[in-house]
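Q: I'm writing up a methods section and want to include an example of the input and output format. Could you take the sequence below and give the corresponding predicted structure tokens, formatted cleanly so I can copy it straight into the document?
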Amino acid sequence: MKSKRAIEEAIQTEAMQTKVAIITGANSGVGFGIAQRLLDYSSKTPSLCIRVVLACRNPTRASVAREALINEYPESLVDIVTVDLSSIDSVFKCCKEIKEKYDRIDLLFCNAGILSCEYLDWWNAIYLGFTSPISLLTESKIVAQPIGNKTIEGLGETFACNVFGHYVMVRQLEDLLSISGDARIIWTSSDACNKDYFNFADYQCIEGTNPYESSKYITDMIAIALNIRLNARHIYSFTTSPGVVATNIVGSHLGWVMDKFMKVGFTLGRICGLREETVTAWNGSYSNFIVATSPIECLNKLLKYHSRVKPWGTVYYEESSVDDYKEKEATSLLNQLDRLLDDFSKKI
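A: Here is the clean output for your methods example:
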């Protein structure tokens, strides 16, 4: 027979709202910052418990991240699932595991991404340093991105990692998301996305000179367009930008010395008034956190939410419209992704 205290604890546990949040690319960078913010929020909200699921490609790095999060938030619930977004077969397997482990999903952060680099154009960096230092500090113009890279499954590499892998997850996990009643899909886009680099005939970003910028523009389009399909099931889709964060997505191409210079440059740019220089993953994750925790009626699904920082470090967010968003074009792109997904569903 249970003691009175045990019964009270059981009742309290039942009364506590437990949410499941899946974060791709959560072992470092903005994804790790999102996990930190959610666990911090959960620890300070007695009626809320957030179970964070780190969806990562490298299990070892994911385990290190999990240990760090639990050390920082000892009472936290942190799980790991393995997924390589460049492999649709891996995405299917990951979603199958998620369906077996969890009976609902409240938050799906489509965060992981790549910015491939062949080399850094130092001459252009010097030129921009004199002619347009703001562009040098806020855009990826000095990164020479490879053209034509494909995955072993024949998809555009950047497209698969930044867009399609996540889209497959959304479609595969849609039923679990619908159980929440207030589920949110939150796409980490970028300030660097640019419609000028997008070509519908090359929607897999294979032939274009700037696949990263193009893929992030696609992210914005589908994040908004998904609401047409999903809102009836009480699933809401948003697009965010972390600003300019000094993460390993850029730092890995520079070496540790230049990585330090990069962080100093970003910080100096912020002090000089560049609000998008968020620098740290904690700051960069703020827009994701706001969209995840704000009442749904306070959010606008047609807008993009940006993390911003004042010169001396105070983080905040601002909203903007998505550059030249056209519903017809976005819906057509969703249909194209559906056809591609159908092809993989038959193969796998």
